[in-house]
Design a protein that fits this description.
Number of helices: 13
Shape: globular
CATH topology of the largest domain: Serine Threonine Protein Phosphatase 5, Tetratricopeptide repeat
CATH architecture of the largest domain: Alpha Horseshoe
Strand content: 5-15%
Distance between the termini: 95 Å
Strand order of the largest sheet: 2-1-5
Order of helices and strands: EEEEEHHHHHHHHHHHHH
Helix content: 55-70%
CATH class of the largest domain: Mainly Alpha
Number of strands: 5
Length: about 400
């Protein structure tokens, strides 16, 4: 089908119109083209413009000048009769995908309210992807939306984990058991969403671990986030006792995939992911390499960039290692970084998400030790910290002596 703008009895049909081609719909016998008008009709008049259609095989024929009302009928009739699917929905899907990639997701990345972003991601993901029934599947927006939605489920699972600890400590057996069940369900949901994000990234580019895909600068963020979502899905599924069945080899593939992007440009993340694997599998580390030092270097790079996702990786690995002193040190350095360096404006949300993961670890540590989470505005402090030494009192100062 060929689409053209119709405005007040005139059609604008010349070289100023360009084409965007997509696959056919329905049985595949028809292809359709969206003609994007480039200047004849004022933008503020477009909502009133009427779309009319003609058969793609009659490009050299004449076009009737219809009244706006008849043009609407012609458009609807042609769309239903010839194409076999709704071209209106297709057009809307294209615009929705373009808006999501060009505006909605970049705007969301600048947000400082993760709760609002959670609600948006959970509501928008399935709505946006429903257009895949009438047009192509938007893998790039889906990667981001499912990753964010997975982080929302993970945050809820953290809360259930704290409820379990409190109930267990107070010997409320039924409440503890129920909280543990909800915790595992939360991690299973997180793993499911995070794995979907990874799968959409793979569908758009390729499976990480082999050759690097040809990425432009705008696509690299989706590659990085998709790989991180894959790693997160493995960890969430482990916490859910393998309920989702996420392939474990994603972790090693992700390490190799991260090497396809620049370490400095992406806030030390490739180095952090690589070092985390070396910590867990020390035999794989090059001779003479200190994985913990590599993690700290990556975290320092993340601090300078204002996107502290490498901090979250370091804290998570330190937590898994069981080294409490190393874990506390990583959390303290994160808290100090927040005071010294603001979040990068274009990626503020990612910095906040990393911060929330670290707070969740700190909350669990505090709850295990005291029964309640990290005191307000005291991240980086711990229940067993020694009181700061008071300066020595000099009686001469009180008396004004010299």
């Amino acid at each position: 089908m060929l689409w053209a703008r119709f405005w007040q009895g005139r059609t604008f049909w010349d070289s100023a119109i360009d084409f965007k081609v997509n696959g056919g719909c329905g049985s595949g016998q028809w292809h359709w083209y969206l003609l994007r008008y480039t200047g004849k009709v004022p933008v503020n008049h477009w909502p009133q413009a009427v779309i009319i259609t003609i058969n793609k095989h009659s490009l050299g024929g004449t076009m009737s000048l219809l009244s706006p009302s008849l043009a609407r009928v012609a458009a609807l009739t042609a769309a239903l009769t010839l194409s076999g699917c709704s071209a209106v929905y297709k057009t809307t899907g294209w615009f929705a995908y373009d808006y999501a990639e060009s505006h909605a997701i970049p705007f969301t990345m600048r947000s400082d309210d993760p709760t609002l972003v959670c609600n948006q991601s959970q509501a928008l993901a399935e709505t946006l992807l429903s257009f895949s029934d009438v047009t192509y599947e938007a893998h790039l927006p889906a990667t981001t939306l499912y990753m964010m939605a997975g982080s929302c489920a993970e945050a809820e699972a953290h809360e259930h984990a704290l409820a379990y600890l409190r109930a267990f400590d107070s010997q409320q057996v039924a409440a503890a058991k129920d909280a543990r069940i909800l915790e595992k369900r939360g991690y299973a949901l997180a793993a499911q969403r995070q794995y979907k994000a990874y799968q959409h990234m793979v569908a758009e580019f390729t499976e990480p671990g082999a050759e690097c895909p040809d990425l432009d600068r705008d696509e690299e963020i989706y590659w990085v986030l998709g790989i991180l979502a894959g790693v997160q899905s493995v960890m969430s599924d482990l916490r859910a006792e393998g309920a989702v069945g996420v392939p474990k080899d994603i972790a090693m593939k992700s390490v190799r995939g991260m090497q396809c992007v620049d370490n400095q440009r992406w806030w030390g993340l490739p180095q952090a992911v690589q070092a985390s694997v070396w910590v867990m599998l020390p035999d794989n580390a090059p001779v003479g390499t200190d994985p913990w030092q590599q993690l700290q270097q990556a975290s320092a790079m993340a601090s300078d960039a204002g996107v502290r996702m490498a901090h979250a990786i370091e804290v998570t690995i330190a937590d898994s290692s069981g080294d409490q002193q190393r874990l506390k040190d990583a959390i303290r350095r994160h808290a100090q970084s927040l005071e010294q360096t603001p979040a990068a404006p274009d990626y503020r949300l990612l910095d906040i998400m990393a911060h929330r993961q670290i707070v969740a670890v700190s909350d669990r540590m505090w709850t295990e030790a005291t029964g309640s989470r990290t005191p307000y505005d005291q991240l980086g402090t711990f229940w067993d910290d020694k009181p700061a030494a008071m300066p020595a009192f000099d009686i001469d100062d009180l008396l004004g002596g010299e």
